[in-house]
User: What shape does this take?
Amino acid sequence: MKVLVIGAGGREHVLAFKLNQSPLINEIHVIPGNDAMNNIATVHTDIDESNHEKIIDFAKTQDISWVIIGPEQPLIEGLTDKLQAEDIKVFGPNQAAAQIEGSKLFAKQLMEQYDIPTATYKETNNKTDALAYIRTCDYPIVLKKDGLAAGKGVIIANNIDEAHEGIDTLYSEEKGTVVFEQFLEGEEFSLMTFVNQDYAVPFDCIAQDHKRAFDNDEGPNTGGMGAYCPVPHIDESIIERTNNEIAQPIAQAMAQEGYAFFGVLYIGVIITKEGPKVIEFNARFGDPEAQVLLTRMESDLMQHILDLEAKQPIQFKWKKEAVVGVILASKGYPGTYHKGDRVSGFTLDGKYFVSGLNKVDQHFVTSGGRVILALGEGSDIREAKASAYDAVNQIQSNALFYRKDISDKAIRKM
Assistant: This one.
């Protein structure tokens, strides 16, 4: 079969890499892709992922069997709906179901209605009300912009001054919705769940992401600075509770409310004293979690998608090895950063996945905030970390920075 992957980042790079291993697939295309994917797929950088009409025309003329949508923006914009209207199969929820990520308020209201454990919240619809609320709320408090923010629309305010600054950041004008959430303490993890309406199959391997820019979880939130899997110090009973209290109920809730979710639901979970609670939902694979999870996955991703479509049992198979991935980002990210700096020293054989590089005159140069993820595997997390940082050290560039403590939470508990 022919498969088309939508997206240009590291998540889409690993999706194409993983799908390329499937005996079910004989041709992979990526729109728009990036120059690092040319050895595993046909890349169409001349088509923008927001150009839905061109994507539809391409899928029809190339007789594409499946379109697999990587990033959130095309889902929120309704690309799935348009493709399905042309009888093209899509792995990725439709526009209505993608609200689970596209609107923080939608997600909170749905969880509240169906008693799915999460932080208490309050929404404000204008800057004036938000400024009034921060004079009465408890601290710390979490501010979330209602809408997509590329992983950077979350601010933790420890006091009223930080909350005021956060409101100024999230409210570019007077009107707009911001969700204020109770601050929850505990360890976080990411659970990917295959969902087809009321049929939900969580991965039986979880990952842990590192959102803050700097070591020891300091600095601003980013789209993710690294991840690892499995997470050996989080007990199986917690994962089972997350499935029973969150994954299955949210799938049932969405189906009952008439939202046609078919794809992968990312569940960001925090382990509190009361048990696991939802931090956020995403309507697609996490990035960089996808890079480590799909590297560790031995079973056939395309077969899993077909089994999900048929609501058949899904049998995951994982490598014994642990996997650690470290993001190298442009200096200044998630704020202002320079583009066009040369990066070299990496390979394109599955040890590195590219998020923000373009090829110019036979050299790769930076084109984004998060630039490349270096992977390491090992018999345990400690060995995998050492291997990952060996891969980091192979990269030659003066324009990048990275965290040095990816996976240390697991290592400290070994």
